[in-house]
Amino acid sequence: MHAGQGCAITTRLVVPRARYDEAVAAAAATMSSIKPGDPTDPGTVCGPLISARQRDRVQGYLDLAVTEGGSFACGGGRPAEMHKGFFIEPTVIKGLGNGARVAREEIFGPVLTVIAHDGDDDAMRIANDSPYGLSGTVFGTDPDRAAAVASRLRVGTVNVNGGVWYCADAPFGGYKQSGNGREMGLAGFEEYLETKVIATAV
């Protein structure tokens, strides 16, 4: 979506270590199926980045991922067939931990880093070890476990198994460096109100 240039788009996929290779393969298969193209074509899912500067910035992060010890399960550069435009291939990075810059900084490109965890507590440590906290996603077959994990995420919005949180009656906003305040919902409406306190001695 938006070639990864959205504020609430998933950039880290934290998966059980025992299923890491399976998760990387699934992510790579999905990302490889997304072909960058003309954004005016209704069939296009991934258009170009906003500018040459942003394309070069994203490519710099991809080069950095290799320097940091990672590799690409798919993508990793400009599409060979796209000679015009500011395109980057949808990319899956593997082999890195959460300390890597590509896992910690906002790239704003079609890039996903897959990180292994060793249980729910470790997954929470990794997920919450970020200066940002706008949104997150939890997938799981046990609804109670998924809800428990979602409640521990230090983010402003969480979707569980594809739940849609972006609607007019739900407040949207983040924690930490993802900002203060909310838009939409009652909390968003209250941003436009002025509060007055009157104290009278009795």
* End-to-end CA span: 59 Å
CATH class division of one domain: Alpha Beta
- Mean pLDDT over the residues: 95
List the total number of helices: 6
Helical content band: 25-40%
Secondary structure class reads alpha/beta
CATH homologous superfamily name of one domain? Aldehyde Dehydrogenase, Chain A, domain 2
According to CATH, the fold-level topology of one domain is Aldehyde Dehydrogenase, Chain A, domain 2
Q: SSE order, as H and E?
A: EHHEEHEHEEHEEH
Judging by the overall fold, what is the CATH architecture of one domain? 3-Layer(aba) Sandwich
Number of strands: 8
Rg estimate, integer Å = 19 Å
* Low-confidence runs of at least 5 consecutive residues: none
Widest sheet, order of strands: 1-4-3-2
User: What sort of overall outline do the alpha carbons produce when their principal axes are compared?
Assistant: globular
Beta-strand percentage range? 15-25%
Describe the protein's architecture and organization:
With 202 residues, this protein is α/β, with parallel strands linked by helices. It has a domain at 2-130: Aldehyde Dehydrogenase, Chain A, domain 2, CATH 3.40.309.10. Helix content is 29%, strand content 16%. It has 6 helices and 8 strands; from the N terminus they run βααββαβαββαββα. It has helices at 20-32, 52-67, 101-104, 120-128, 143-152, 185-190; strands spanning 12-16, 71-74, 91-94, 111-117, 132-133, 135-138, 157-160, 175-176. The strands form 3 sheets. A 4-stranded mixed sheet has the order 1-4-3-2.
